[in-house]
Write a structure and sequence with these properties.
The chain is α+β, with helices and mostly antiparallel strands and 94 residues long. The protein has a single domain, classed as 3-Layer(aba) Sandwich (GIY-YIG endonuclease). The protein has helices at 24-33, 39-43, 57-67, 72-82; strands at 3-9, 16-21, 47-54. Strand 1 (3-9) and strand 2 form a beta hairpin. It starts with a strand and ends in a 12-residue tail after the last helix. This is GIY-YIG nuclease family protein. Residues 1-77 form the GIY-YIG domain.
């Protein structure tokens, strides 16, 4: 089963959330619509600014755990490598 690690935010250099999912399009839709109570709903984290695909969900889970230990500046550098303008990538998924 494939998996994705992703980062959502509320605006450029705003609050960041790292998550993992087997279905990126569905999961980001849930964040955008506030369908899941918790951290992302509380802070309005609706913009997908970075993601990475893995062929095995277990690898995605490990990557998420590792990234959650990173310094914020490392996460920002990763986002800006893929998405320097911090575009919302949700509409580019399909």
């Amino acid at each position: 089963m494939t998996g994705y690690v992703y980062i959502v935010t509320n605006h450029k250099n705003g609050t960041l959330y790292i998550g993992v999912t087997p279905d990126l399009e569905r999961r980001i839709y849930e964040h955008r619509e506030g369908l899941t109570p918790g951290f992302t709903s509380k802070y309005g984290l609706t913009q997908l600014v970075w993601y990475e695909e893995f062929w095995d969900i277990r690898d995605a889970i490990q990557r998420e755990k590792t990234m959650k230990q990173w310094y914020r500046k490392w996460k920002i550098a990763l986002i800006e490598t893929m998405n320097p303008d911090w575009r919302d990538l949700y509409f580019e998924l399909w």
